[in-house]
Fold this protein.
Amino acid sequence: MQSSASLTISDLWIERGGNDLCKGLSFSIHPGEAWRVLGGNGTGKTSLLKVIAGISMPLEGEIFYLGQNVTSDRSPLQQEMVYLGHLMGVKSALTVEENLRWYCPERSLEELHNVAKDLGLFPFLASLVKTLSAGQQRRVALARLWLSKKTLWLLDEPFASLDVEGGVMLEVCIQQHLTSGGLVLLSTHQSLSSIIPHDVVLQP
Ligand SMILES: Nc1ncnc2c1ncn2[C@@H]1O[C@H](COP(=O)(O)OP(=O)(O)OP(=O)(O)O)[C@@H](O)[C@H]1O
């Protein structure tokens, strides 16, 4: 399949627990584009993101990344991807600073501290993540985006638990990523039409 898109989903069929969550689903994401996965509870938003991330497999269909068919081996895509799922990938028994170090061992302590300041986490650097509020823990997870140099962001309800300020910061972060040619696919119930004009709609 030829396409100028960075990520192409072609004719995807995902089934879970005996139910078809989508069938014949196709869309393409070009550099600098964000797409939003829409649908009510249980319609398959998380399942779609997991399939694209390579955590689970579709029944049928193909996934192309940078023109390469990655359906059976998602590693070329995974090397370029940040996937933030419901569980957020934070290490709750580690401190905030230890989590940031774990995300990005190649970054200097000063860079990590600057990200912590941007996200309002600086006072909590020495706190165990499990002692933080849900929104603060979400901010720790989102630090991965602030530190990331990866092109493709797959974000499962990234605005969940964030306050208004956190939501605005995340929108700005996404906008900056798009401006630098990144790709974003996220599920959200938030209205983000200004930065995310493209929707994938999953029906019950
Ligand atoms: N591993 C699994 N085995 C069986 N059924 C599953 C599995 N994973 C998901 N499902 C089912 O697939 C459907 C879609 O689940 P999914 O989590 O993808 O929905 P969602 O749109 O993300 O929901 P929500 O908005 O509530 O987070 C649900 O009915 C769920 O029970």
Summary: The helical segments are 45-53, 75-78, 96-103, 109-118, 134-147, 164-179. The radius of gyration is 17 Å.
